[in-house]
Design goal:
Blueprint: E1 2-7, E2 14-19, H1 24-46, H2 58-68, H3 74-79, H4 81-92, E3 96-98, H5 99-108, H6 116-120, E4 124-133, E5 136-148
Length: 150
């Protein structure tokens, strides 16, 4: 999660924002954006100028789209479910992993949320396979090569 105080009025209004994010990158994006807003606010106060700030600057979003030639904004890239599902498909298609290995890979993945299966279960084919090994039941996730439901 990311936390930041937001000063909307120099004297009276302070709001705390706590955000639960899908990814570590999303957390960094929020922290950096909120730091930029705070810094800009302090500079505006020094100049004695009243100013409204956007959380995501449309100018920066446009620059991001043009630089990446992706046709998708930075916000959509990191927060849109469709993009997260595409990243999941690329990372796991055609694999069979134990539940523990799957969770570890999700934990280390810079973008995918740990609850990604809840997001993709309606569009991605996967099986939960249980096998007995050394007297223990081991749970596997088996992801199809193609993945998407037709």
């Amino acid at each position: 999660y990311a936390y930041t105080p937001v000063f909307l009025d120099h004297k009276l209004h302070i709001y705390d924002i706590i955000v639960l994010s899908y990814s570590t990158y999303g957390q960094e994006l929020l922290k950096n954006t909120m730091y930029r807003l705070y810094r800009d606010r302090e500079q505006a106060i020094e100049k004695n100028v009243q100013q409204e700030f956007d959380l995501f600057s449309t100018t920066e979003e446009d620059i991001y789209v043009k630089d990446r030639r992706s046709g998708i904004s930075e916000f959509e890239f990191h927060y849109a479910d469709e993009h997260i599902i595409k990243m999941f498909c690329e990372a796991f298609k055609g694999q069979m992993l134990t539940k523990e290995d799957f969770r570890e890979r999700l934990r280390r993945h810079p973008y995918l949320p740990t609850n990604v299966l809840n997001m993709v279960k309606k569009v991605w084919k996967y099986e939960i396979v249980k096998r007995e090994e050394n007297g223990k039941t081991i749970v596997y996730y088996k992801f199809s090569e193609r993945g998407l439901y037709e």
